[in-house]
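On clarity, I found the account of how folds are encoded harder to follow than it need be. What matters is that the chain and its backbone geometry are given together, residue for residue. The format is easy to grasp once an entry is in front of the reader. For illustration, here is how one protein appears when written out as sequence plus structure tokens.
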Amino acid sequence: MRSRIATWSVGIVLLVSSAAVAASDPVEISVGARALAVGKRGEQVQTQPLPPPPVVCERVVVIGDSLTDNAGPWLRDGLRDAGFTRRVDAQPSRRIPASVAAPRSGVRAAWAVRASFGEAECWVVALGSNDLIFGAADPLTADALISEMLAAVTPGADVWWVNLDYHRDPRTSFDFEGATAAFNRVLDDRAAADDELHVIDWFSLAEANLQWFFDPVHVDTTGSIARAQQVIDALPGPQP
């Protein structure tokens, strides 16, 4: 889990010591937490934390590559129409790390958006395709790149990461399909361990609609509209 500050009690141990309660009288404990047991005077009771409040997105930042750039018109309009205050920053050939020069670094783009647009409680990251051939097929490298990108967004923000779908490219012997699967597995594992990270499953949607692809990774207008709508649908809407 990243840096969200919890506002509810975790693992509170309460000592029931009121003289007004007889030793034989059961006392149920509920102070910002759900009681796991019924306590008697002088007995320690372990409590369970309440679930976190639901995520609500008001301000949304999207950081992406050429796939997001192609979907940009529908994504910007759709987010606006859904009531979000949004910034979409997309750049062809964009990779993740800060070691890449702006504007082709996702990390640097996140820093720049935070400086100009401000902070946002919800971020969408649609990156990784252009990193596959630079080592992101390796699980340790993929994990490090994901960590670097997550560290660049607003602290405590929820992040929706669009997973990858990159097909075989006949121009090279590089195994893009295997690399895609490896990166997506790391992303799934990270999301399973981090309740602030969510995966938008572009891979499954795109694989069910192979007619959208006009090259190994990019999709046509129909696919770009569907990709934009998938992102919009994944975000919890702002309060009315």
